[in-house]
Amino acid sequence: MKVRFWGTRGSIAKPGPSTARYGGNTSCIEVRSSKGTLVVIDCGTGSHGLGQALVEEGVTRGCLLISHTHWDHIQGLPFFAPLFQQSNEWDICGPKGLSGSLRETLAGQMESTYFPVALESLGATIRYWDLLQGSFQVDDIRVSTHHLNHPALTLAYRLECDGATIVYACDHEVYSHAAADGHVRLDGPDLRHAEFAAGADLLIHDSQYTAAEYPNKINWGHSTIEYAMRVAREAGVGQLALTHHDPLRTDDELDLLVERAEATMREYGSPIHVFAAMEGQTIEVKAASPSATEPAAAMTQHSIQTTENAQTVLLGLHDPEMITLFANAISTDASLRAVKVTNAADVHAAATSDRLSVVILEHGPGHDALAMCRQIAADRADDRRRLPILVVADREYPGGAKAGVAEWLVKPFSSVYAQAKVQAWVHRGTSRWKKAAIPADEDRRLSTLRAMGIFDTPPEARFDRITRLASRFFAAPIALITLVDPDRQWFKSRVGLNIRETSRESSFCAHAVFDRSTLVVNDALVDDRFAENPLVVDEPRVRFYAGAPLILTDGTCAGCLAVLDTRPRWFAASDVQLLEDLRDLAVSELERERSSGNGSAEDSRLA
Cα separation of 516 and 580, whole Å? Predict the structure, then answer.
């Protein structure tokens, strides 16, 4: 892959004589695979020059990955020329903002108060994708995401293609303040951050501050150069590009910092090449030892879903100031509710009996949050979903990660910071399994199914021919004709499954029945409706699903013709059309069932 830096400055654009060599534009990089696939990461002011170059080159297709929606990473969007070209197609991907979808946030900076052209006026065909942690495919480039530590929901990106790997981690702050100087081994979430970059051929990492500057920059959401080098060493990367340069940093000062960084790497005996990213710099990234990577899913929308009920945050705090600060922070978000407790027994009872999203404890004299963390972890040992526990303290204490502390919140900090931390952890932990809603015509739909009397009848060749054809046409190991009743989906015909039915709440087809349109799930593991579905996490371990609803002549939907696979797949428009053609054959057979009068013996489970 080839990488070109178009913007390397942090926080605010700073063009001028003292920044001419490394550049004054904010974050934007261009990545190309050997096949020509284009991925742009972040859309700071550097994207203006890139956009002009792409228009001149005649590039009409690309994918824009946004790390987060702070202005220095999106201000170039209204000036990104390819988005104004009617012949262009772009996918814009990024984490959902704290107050709305990615599209809503981007539209906000283009309201008439700030900009004369609205987002809706852009000429290109644009698809917006709200991302969580997961993986997807952009043509031949596999993209994986990982949460970063920043006052807004922020993602790192790992790009794998042609045997090479690039990781982009900007903006990110050290979790453990003790690790800011780069001397201590990483632990807990800092270690997981390094693991995300493991083996990368190029790591592009936030390095806005030095360790000496960091004590005055705590909770500002940025890394030190020393921490970035530590991450690079523990991750075993090939090259480290320092980026998001402080706007007050001159070219000469950056030269000195790079010299010190190179000396530090030599002291550690590390072969890693470290450099400061420079506008206009192009790097060809090759794998040290090429290895095959498992194909990921094609581009799949996996939005952060808000649930019908508010997410519960347990506040086990004692300091009245902290109680007020967190209560105010949570009250500004309608999707959150706070439960306040004041003693260890109440914390323990609430943590074991309630469906919580986040627990916030306080550690200090007379309040042993680490012991409470260990007790909660022991009581919830059988829970597949790890409950994040944030601990407020005057400093970080040893043993936190081992005890189960997800993150230390070191005082002092603001209400805005508290809100961002709570929302980020809630979004990470939200259950990723959404049960289908009930159709508005449910009573009439069930009445039609009762009259057909088809439930629990033996297999029939006329239906089995259709599922065999579907399995063969799509090379799918599983093909089904499903009928959905009040509490189950029953398979009138099945290929590749031994079971005859599943619960309705775990049914993919129930979603298509409600939507009354063909549903395609390219990779269930990165789709928040299905990632924790029992049919995904347990047998048959569904990764791909495509289902066309069986809509009868009276307008009711009986179920679906569906094909499934245990690996992620891409389904083209022509595949959807073919599936719907086969679906029409199944509907014709069901209509014959209705007209033949074979319905005198009603299915007892529907009665």
Answer: 12
Residue 172 has which token pair? Answer: 């990110």
Tell me the C-alpha to C-alpha distance, in Å, between residue 21 and each of 15, 159, 530. Answer: 10, 27, 48
The rounded distance, in Å, linking the Cα atoms of 7 and 557 is 52
How many Å apart are CA 159 and CA 171, to the nearest integer? 17
Rounded-to-integer distance, Cα 222 and Cα 377, Å: 30
Burial category of 576 from C-beta neighbours within 10 Å (exposed 0-12, middle 13-18, buried 19 and up): middle
Q: For 397-441, what is each residue's pLDDT tens digit? A: 888 888 888 888 988 888 778 887 887 777 665 556 778 888 999
Q: Say if residues 130 and 526 touch (Cβ distance below 8 Å).
A: no
Quick one: average pLDDT of 379-389?
A: 68
Query: Token pair for residue 217?
Result: 């920059």
Sheet containing 61-65: which strands, arranged edge to edge? Answer: 125-131, 89-95, 61-65, 38-41, 28-32, 2-7, 282-284
N- to C-terminal Cα distance for the chain? 61
Per CATH, domain 311-429 is 1.10.10.10: no
* pLDDT tens digits, one per residue of 291-311: 333 333 333 333 323 333 467
- Residue 335 is which amino acid? S
Q: Which of 229, 182, 171 is nearest to 203 (CA)?
A: 229
Amino acid in the structure at residue 234: E
Q: From the DSSP assignment, how many helices (H) and strands (E) are in the chain? A: 15, 25
* CATH code matching the domain that covers 442-596, chosen among 3.40.30.10, 1.10.260.40, 3.40.50.720, 3.30.450.40: 3.30.450.40
Spell out the residues 6+ positions from residue 142 whose beta carbon is closer than 8 angstroms to its own: 135, 136, 159, 160, 161, 293, 295, 296
**Tell me, what's the pLDDT at 100?**
62
Q: What is the pLDDT of residues 497-527, one digit of tens each?
A: 999 999 888 899 999 999 999 999 988 877 7
**CA–CA distance, 31 with 25 (Å, rounded to integer):** 18
Name the 3-class secondary structure at 133: coil
In the sheet that 336-340 helps form, which strands lie side by side, from edge to edge? 336-340, 311-316, 358-362, 389-393, 407-410
Which pLDDT score, from 0 to 100, does residue 202 have? 97
CATH number for the segment(s) 2-284: 3.60.15.10
- Whether residue 295 has a cis bond before it, omega within 30° of 0: no
Q: What distance in Å separates the CA atoms of residue 419 and residue 94, rounded to the nearest whole number?
A: 20
Tokens of 332: 């500004």
Alpha carbons within 13 angstroms on the beta-carbon side of residue 392 total 23
Q: Contact at 8 Å (CB) between 531 and 516?
A: no
pLDDT tens per residue across span 588-603? 999 987 776 554 333 3
Contact (CB, 8 A) for 337 and 358: no
SS3 content of the chain, % helix, strand, coil (to 5): 30, 25, 45
